[in-house]
Amino acid sequence: LQTRMQSLQPDPRARYRSVYEALKKMVLTEGLWRPLRGINVTMLGAGPAHAMYFACYESMKKSLSEIFQQGGNSHLANGIAGSVATLLHDAVMNPAEVVMGRLWVTLRPYTSVLSCVRSVRRTEGLRAFYRSYTTQLSMNVPFQALHFITYELLQERLNPRRDYSPRSHVVAGAVAGAVAAAATTPLDVCKTLLNTQENTALSSAGIRGHLSGMANAFGTVYQLGGVTGFFKGVQARVIYQMPSTAIAWSVYEFFKYLLTKHSLERRT
Fold first, then answer.
1. Where are the alpha helices (DSSP H) in the chain?
2. What are residue 79's phi and psi, to 5 degrees?
3. Least buried of 32, 144, 211, 249, by fewest C-beta within 10 Å?
4. Where are the annotated Solcar repeats, by residue (predicted)?
5. pLDDT of 44-66, one tens digit each?
6. Are 218 and 162 spatial neighbours (Cβ–Cβ below 8 Å)?
7. pLDDT digits (tens, 9 = 90+) for 176-223
8. How does DSSP classify residue 165?
9. In a domain, 248, yes or no
10. Residue 129, CA distances (Å) to 135, 223, 267 in order
């Protein structure tokens, strides 16, 4: 829904006024399972990407906190650790997001994930899978910095003893995701345009070939949608990120607690 609603020149059948209308129309006209298209490539990329992401974050947060605020929790350390972890995460997820974006946009001629990968590689080359990588980083680095800082800040207020507390993890994760998502929507719109290479939009802007680079993406979005164009799909993005980050933190904190408890029991 977010990708569809961020379209600068949407297909007439994919013009939506709200998230509810978009979901209802998509299911009625394209089938019940259409909103879940691309879930296999999402799962394939998300596993290793998040493993590196949280491992890097925990390691760097611990090391940097000792430097910036020994024995305490440093928000600067949290932000830097989250930013560096994003480099590894996006290196794995960027090709997956390119494929997902192509599958999600209306009237794309791809019948499966493999047909999409083959078509993109044949017509645009392997470089196409990383065309939006720098833009993705320029979006995700501030997103994750805001995300982790907000999460850790809320944990200090809601769960100062840092015990395993499912309620505080859910609330802090959801709010952190919403804040970061809303603030970085303009960058996400540019990333979506680079990933999908929306033909109608590029033609309207007089662009031949493929759009590349964040500066070009910003210029194209402004040319076609003005300032409001940078906030297309913000509602869908916030609605998506809130449960996403809440679930991610809840699952992560649960396994962290479980594995730490198991390790302590083995030592004793």
1. 2-5, 19-30, 39-68, 75-104, 113-124, 133-158, 166-183, 185-196, 199-204, 214-229, 234-267
2. -65, -45
3. 32
4. 1-63, 73-157, 164-258
5. 788 888 888 889 998 998 889 88
6. no
7. 999 999 999 998 888 878 777 776 777 777 777 777 777 888 888 888
8. -
9. no
10. 13, 25, 46
Q: Are 6 and 217 in contact (CB under 8 A)?
A: no
What is the domain count for the chain? 1
For residue 12, tell me if it sits in a domain.
yes
pLDDT (tens digit per residue) in 131-152? 778 777 887 888 888 999 999 9
123 domain residue, yes or no: yes
> What is the span of the domain harbouring residue 64?
1-148
On the CB side of 7, CA atoms within 13 Å amount to: 24
Q: For the chain, what is the mean pLDDT?
A: 84
- The dihedral through the CA atoms of 97, 98, 102, 105 has a sign that is positive
User: Is residue 112 one of the residues assigned to a domain?
Assistant: yes
Whether residue 193 contacts residue 220, with contact meaning beta carbons closer than 8 Å, is answered with yes
